[in-house]
Amino acid sequence: MGKTLIIGASSNPERYSYLAAQRLLAYGYEIELIGLRKDVIFDQVIDTEKKAFEDIDTVTLYLSDKFQPEYYEYIISLNPRRVIFNPGTENAEFEKLLIQNDIDAQEACTLVLLRTGQY
To answer: Which of 31, 80, 98, 114 is surrounded by the fewest CB atoms within 10 Å?
Structure first.
């Protein structure tokens, strides 16, 4: 089982990306985090740089479509199996690009997928 990369990670407990990190760890998934500010949550570092993480299975986005273009090439370079566009992050242009690169693009909610056993 590969890791999940959360892009748009936050140390604010009211953010969905924070809850996703918490729940993914609770379900036994390994995570990597990229956010606007360097921080630590659940003993996990929130990085601000696009690192060449190994073994990324899923990228889950908590970043609005206007901030996504700078991540297109980076995410494709990680060669994940899928990218999850959480509510409010939908982006037809990026979804099309992912599909062209044989990466599954899903408009879904990470928290719901976990809760319903579909993650």
So the answer is: 114
- pLDDT tens profile 26-78: 999 999 999 999 999 999 999 999 999 999 999 999 999 999 999 999 999 99
Question: Where is 56: in which H helix or E strand?
Answer: strand 56-61
Which domains are delineated in the chain?
Answer: 3-115 (3.40.50.720)
d(CA 85, CA 88): 8
* Distance, CA of 59 to chain centre: 4
The two tokens of residue 33 are 């985090």
Any residues with CB less than 8 A from the CB of 101 and at least 6 apart, and which?
76
Q: Are 53 and 11 in contact (CB under 8 A)?
A: no
